[in-house]
Amino acid sequence: MRLNSVGQIALVAAAIAYLLGVYFASSPVWMGFTINALIVAVIALSWNITGGFGGLSSFGHAAMYGTGAYASAILQVKFGLNAWIGFGAGILAGATMGAFIGALAFRYGLRGSYFALVTLAFAEVLRICASSFEFTGGGSGLQLTLTPGIGNLQINDRTVVYTALLIVVAAVMALTALIKFSRFGAYLIAVRENEDAARALGIDTYKIKVQAMAISGAFGGLAGVLYLQLWLFIDSTVVYGSAVSVEALIGPIIGGAGTVWGPLLGTLGLHLLGEGAKHLLPNAPGLNFVLYAIVLICALRFLPQGLVGLAGRVGPFKKKENDNA
Amino acid sequence: MLEVRNLSKSFGGLKAVTDANLDVPEGSIVGLLGPNGAGKTTCFTMIAGFTKADVGTVRFRGQDITGLPPHRICELGMIRTFQIVQPFAGLTVQENIAVGAYLHHHDRRDAMSVAREVGKRLGMGAMLDRPASSLTIAGRKRLELARALATGAKLLLLDEVMAGLIPSEITEIVGIIRQIRDEGHTFLMIEHVMQAVMSLAETAYVLNQGKMIAHGPPRELVKDPSVVEAYLGHGAAARLQEGSHA
Fold first, then answer.
1. CA B116 → CA A229, B100, B121, B179, distances in Å?
2. Chain B closest CA to A125's CA: distance in Å?
3. A196 touches chain B (CB under 8 A)
4. What is the pLDDT of residue A324?
5. Which residues of A289-316 are buried (b: 16+ CB within 10 A; e: fewer)?
6. Stretch A20-25: mean pLDDT
7. CB-based contact (8 Å) between A33 and chain B?
8. How far apart are CA B98 and CA B116, in angstroms?
9. What are A240-275's pLDDT values in tens digits?
10. Chain A residues touching B65 at Cβ < 8 A
11. C-beta atoms of A199 and B50 within 8 A
């Protein structure tokens, strides 16, 4: 996780300062807002594994997010199992769903926009299924019983929740860095850059892509479970809706896809922007999505490497090894 | 080291390769010649596992590798390069080579140091930290070679590695290939640059319209009437003969 320039250090320092500042602001609104942003950052980090490193742009990360949340909720509500078991099962379910979608899509050589469409279709099919079947709670969703306590993964104290989420995000980022600088990461990037050349160099590209989907799915499932434990309620639109898929990809693209810090920076930046817009124009709900779209278009046009790439151009260090943050 | 027997491939009604036989002894440099569209690259893609042959067998170091996927073949020690060079544009030169090195060196530090060493051996020491996208054509061709070598492959299938280079660059690559061969590697190369084939290859095969029409030392091949006619058209050999008498 090396930072290559004054700009990148400033950017990361600003993010850390903000995240720590939330502790001292003693504003429940800010804290609640940042807690939401951190959960979105986890799904953004999930998208970043496949979309950022692997160049496999999914448009349906809600499939993993929702599957993680539903798996945990069903185990708790229908089978009365402990929340921690649900937590593990949710991550596993997300990974399985990711691997399944990947195995199927890559088996038929789908890439680019076709892959994006298939993932979107999966998420939508799952959303409709979840709203139809009885064991997923149908249209009314699933509600966990309120039983506060660490044993049930239900925490009332917002500061503790916030700290826990910071630790989770840091852990997922550390795993991302580990992946980036490993053989697997190098292979994944090679697949993104040129799949034929990767195959010639002895890379089993199918296996690498399915593994990436499984890891991404695990992170996605984790995000879903975190959401569930925070709100104690899910329904099909909330966790399988396309808004989740959009939020998963927009943060990394704005922040810098294929970087360790990009997804967090992009998500925080966007949410601040969206929140700001809400306060400036309180009578226009949904305006934040219009704003997201404008920012996304600008980022795609002017910032191919996102905020991290932009900051990298501000006061770059001379360095021996060329690694991005 | 490599034995190809009765290899055939059709695309619909087009017979791209028919009944091709080919032997590459260990430590040699063997050329694969032929006019455009003769089926040379198709031959390569079948040998390296990128496309499945309709008929025929490929044996590498005595082992039947027909139908194995490319990554398995590469693990066994045979690798192909591409006619149109395919660098990983977003990575540095060293990282590019490291992707090859990762095949047998799972640790990042090992892979990067192997990459550095291979890069230096191919005269790319000064370019290691540059993005691969900034390389010239000659640099990219070298990178292609370096990446292949870093996998630890013993047999390299080079697809027109000289194409698009100026004569002085060709001389350099010829020297590099000879050096790599002396270090214990074997080459099968598709090549149009006759200067290179003449000075490198001990034997060459000539493919025309999907069929092997001749094989032997390159110096003799250029006099072979069937080879001359493959390039210059029917009756050309006879006319050349007359021309040289007149």
1. 49, 12, 9, 18
2. 34
3. yes
4. 45
5. eebbeebbeebeeebebbbbbbbbeeee
6. 91
7. no
8. 8
9. 999 999 999 999 999 999 999 999 999 999 899 888
10. none
11. yes
Query: What value of ipTM does the predicted structure carry?
Result: 0.86
Q: What is the CATH number of domain B2-245?
A: 3.40.50.300
Phi, psi of B210 (to 5 degrees): 85, 0
Q: What pLDDT, on a 0 to 100 scale, did the predictor assign at position A239?
A: 95
The predicted-structure confidence for A160-199, as pLDDT tens digits, reads as follows 999 999 999 999 999 999 999 999 999 999 999 999 899 9
Under 8 Å CB pairs connecting chains A and B tally to 81
Quick one: pLDDT at residue A322? Answer: 44
Low-confidence ranges of chain B (pLDDT < 50): none
Partner B contacted by A316 (CB < 8 A):
no
Q: Which of chain B's residues have a Cβ under 8 Å away from the Cβ of A202?
A: 70-71, 74-75, 79, 100, 103, 151
Domain count, chain A: 1
Burial (CB count within 10 angstroms: exposed 0-12, middle 13-18, buried 19+), residue B242: exposed
Residues in contact with B228: Cβ distance below 8 Å, sequence separation at least 6, in sequence order? B222, B236, B237, B240
Mark yes or no for CB contact A200/B80 under 8 Å: yes
Q: Which residue is closest to B133 within chain A, CA to CA?
A: A193
Q: What residues are paired with B22 via a beta bridge? A: B4
Q: Domain residue spans in chain B? A: 2-245
Closest residue in chain A to residue B151, using alpha carbons only: A201
Residue A233 lies in a domain: yes
pLDDT averaged over chain A? 91
pLDDT range class, residue A316, cuts 50, 70, 90: confident
Instruction: Compute the distance between CA of residue A314 and CA of residue A290 in angstroms, rounded to an integer.
Output: 29
Phi, psi values for residue B214, rounded to 5°: -160, 155
Is residue A285 scored above 80 in pLDDT?
A: no
The whole-number pLDDT of residue A325 equals 42
**Chain B hits for A186, Cβ within 8 Å:** 95, 98-99, 102, 108, 111
Asked if the structure places residue A290 within a domain, the reply is no
Report yes or no on A5 lying in a domain. Answer: no
In a domain, A64, yes or no: yes
Q: Does the structure show a pLDDT above 90 at A58?
A: yes
| Residue-range definition of the domain harbouring residue A180 | 30-245
From A8's Cα to the closest Cα of chain B, the distance in A is 19
Q: Which residues from A are below 8 Å from B70, CB to CB?
A: 199-200, 202
